[in-house]
Amino acid sequence: QVQLVESGGGLVEPGGSLRLSCLASGFTFSDYGLRWYRQAPGKERTLVATISTGGTITTYADSVKGRFTISRDNAKNTLYLQMNSLKPEDTAVYYCNRMDNWGKGTVVSVSA
Predict the structure, then answer these.
(1) Which residues lie closer than 8 Å to 14 by C-beta, 6 or more apart?
(2) Residue 24: what are its φ and ψ, rounded to 5°?
(3) 13-59, pLDDT tens digit by residue?
(4) CB-neighbour burial class of residue 106 (10 A; exposed 0-12, middle 13-18, buried 19+)
(5) Is the dihedral angle over the CA atoms 98, 63, 43, 105 positive or is it negative?
(6) pLDDT tens, 74-85?
(7) What's the chain look like in SS3?
């Protein structure tokens, strides 16, 4: 059974940093491209970043380019999202995704 478990969210001041993690199980982690999505209060879920199987190809939403970095450790079955220079508009529930599998999300709140 595929499981994706996000962690690392929290409350941070504007300009701060957080590192999200997604621990995966139930499939061969290194065989799949992965994604981070987020859903802000009252808004639709949107794509934040993607990463290829080997981690060499990444893409980002325009709103996070230059501030967020997606990475993966295939030996640890873990996906990461390093978030720097956080803004209030980054406040959302962040989800790890593989195809049609989703984690339960981790909450990120950016506020003074």
Answers:
(1) 86, 87, 88, 110, 111, 112
(2) -110, 150
(3) 999 999 999 999 999 999 999 999 999 999 999 999 999 999 999 99
(4) buried
(5) positive
(6) 999 999 999 999
(7) CCEEEEECCEEECCCCCEEEEEEEECCCHHHCCEEEEEECCCCCEEEEEEECCCCCCEEECCCCCCCEEEEEECCCCEEEEEECCCCHHHCEEEEEEECCEECCCEEEEECC
